[in-house]
Amino acid sequence: MGTVGHRFENIRIVLCRPTHPGNIGASARAMKTMGLSRLYLVSPKHFPHPEATARASGAEDVLEKSVVCETLDDALIGAQLMVAVTARPRDLSHEVHDPRGAARILLDEAVRSEVALVFGTEMSGLTTEEIGKCQVISTIPANPAYSSLNLASAVQVMAYELKMTLPEEMNPSGKALDLATFEEIEHFYQHLEKTLVKIGFLDPEEPKRLMQRMRRLFARSRLEKTEVNILRGILRDLSKYSPDTGNEIV
Question: What is the pLDDT of residue 86?
Answer without folding.
Answer: 92
